[in-house]
Design brief:
360 residues, mainly alpha, disordered N terminus
């Protein structure tokens, strides 16, 4: 497994320990019940633990990046451009150029040639197809159903991740993990409710049933891709997953652009620097999402990653206030905090890590 950069946490960690000690002193008073004191100490240790703070920070960085792709995609759609596969094609090309090339020059059993010769090559081809279609289906759903429906139904990916992690990765969940997921989804419901109250998402869509089917299908595929990514990054390395995804994603998306989006792509005025910059911005943010997600999943899990990015709508609101003229509502802030609490509840108890692959 590839190494990662260690954070310089000396001053921050000392401050965190000082705050933790101060909090512990408050609950060590004689009038505090022993059971309550024990539970409070456990909660404080979780909140101030480096593992939780790191997971929280990485998850919110990923959520901000996800919001960025939404902003650029929205600006492109405002200019009549909605060709999701073509928009993602450059991102897969960038992954291929960087990580597939790195994998090709790698020495040992897990290099590009050996992977392609093995059954793993077919598995990665399937993952590439699943990932491309997940992006395509969810973005296409916006043209048929409301943004509110997409936001709610997209969380189906969390259920898929929980299910696949349990049966394919052997991850053992406890009641507190399900409670954490439920609290985070409740926070998402609050964010969507705030959207409805402020009138942010007023379009009901042209074909709600079709749109809902598309977003659920895309969410299921996202869940499959995330679980596959968790297995690879924790048992092999991030570069292998990104390299193979980049190669097959480029191949699949390139073919799909020719077959499905060729006419729409021909209408795009690439001579306009405005459209070119927005397209480039979308690709850069999407590239950062894929590279950062592999890091977040490696350090946490696919489940934590999926519930952490539920806060993306809150960050989209902050950007939207200045770009799209959105209206702020106090429920956004409350819902954001509820999602964070859900992540904290989930992190209260660790899950069993996925097993190592069999050798050979």
């Amino acid at each position: 497994m590839s190494s990662y950069v260690e954070l310089d946490h000396s001053p921050q960690e000392n401050q965190s320990k000082d705050k933790e000690e101060e909090s512990l002193k408050l609950i060590d008073k004689p009038d505090v019940n022993d059971e309550v004191r024990h539970r409070a100490r456990s909660v404080i240790k979780i909140i101030y633990s480096r593992q939780f703070l790191q997971a929280l920070l990485l998850g919110q960085c990923l959520s901000i990046l996800l919001c960025g792709t939404g902003v650029f995609s929205g600006l492109l759609q405002n200019r009549g451009i909605n060709i999701p596969t073509a928009q993602s094609f450059l991102m897969y090309c960038a992954l291929c150029l960087i990580f597939t090339t790195q994998l090709a020059y790698k020495q040992g059993e897990r290099n590009l040639v050996n992977i392609l010769k093995s059954f793993d090559g077919l598995k990665y081809a399937l993952i590439g197809l699943i990932d491309v279609e997940a992006n395509y289906l969810v973005v296409k759903a916006y043209g048929y159903t409301s943004v509110t429906s997409v936001q709610l139904l997209d969380c189906f990916s969390i259920g898929v991740v929980l299910l696949l992690s349990r049966f394919l990765l052997g991850t053992h969940y406890h009641l507190i993990h399900y409670a954490g997921v439920a609290v985070s989804v409740l926070g998402l419901a609050g964010l969507v409710t705030a959207d409805v109250i402020t009138g942010k998402n007023q379009d009901s869509g042209s074909n709600i049933v079709l749109g809902d089917v598309l977003v659920i299908s895309g969410a299921v595929l996202y869940g499959v891709s995330n679980v596959a990514q968790e297995f690879v990054v924790k048992n092999y390395n991030k570069s292998e997953f990104l390299g193979m995804l980049g190669m097959f994603g480029t191949l699949v998306s390139g073919i799909q652009v020719i077959l499905v989006e060729q006419k729409e792509l021909a209408k795009v005025n690439f001579s306009s620097y405005e459209i070119a910059l927005l397209w480039l911005g979308f690709c850069i943010f999407l590239f950062l999402i894929y590279t950062c997600m592999s890091i977040v999943i490696e350090k946490t899990s696919a489940t934590v990653t999926n519930i952490s990015v539920l806060t993306a709508d809150f960050y989209a609101l902050l950007f939207g206030i200045f770009i799209f003229g959105y209206t702020f509502h106090f429920l956004y802030l409350i819902s954001f905090m509820v999602v964070i609490v859900g992540v904290a509840v989930y992190s209260f108890r660790t899950t069993q890590p996925c097993p190592n692959p069999s050798s050979g």
